[in-house]
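Justification of computing resources. Each target in the renewal requires a structure prediction run like the one illustrated here; the chain below, 150 residues long, is used simply to show the kind of job we budget for.
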Amino acid sequence: MHRAKALRDDGGAAAVEFLLVGLILLVPIVYLVIALGQIQSGSFAAETASRQIARGVAAAQNAEHARERVEQTARAVAAEYGIERQELEVDIACRPATALCPSAGATLVVTVRVRVALPLVPDVFGAQQKTRVAVEATSVQKMSRLWSAG
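Resulting structure tokens:
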């Protein structure tokens, strides 16, 4: 009888099970929260860069000044959000399409793509490059009819 009671005694097993199951569930959840935070930061970077580049180009005095503003804004946003500058791709187009972009009276469309690295991915066999998440944002700005391309 005493032996059967000893076999049924589970004292302390619940705490061990709780810790084990808690760790198994907690580690992926924490990783997911960190990864989503980095992706959201990349999304904010893309949105900020596209909006500020569109405004900067529209307010520039000429095409050369506009190019300088694009690069300056892209570098500033990359530094602010902790992204490598080469991971921030800027594409500028005009509607209607013209030979010169930006041009007076056109609608400027700025698209920024950011490739966000996932945390704790080692750079073995190019895994870090293959697991990057692409985030894109687009902003539109109307150019002044009096804007000078020269």
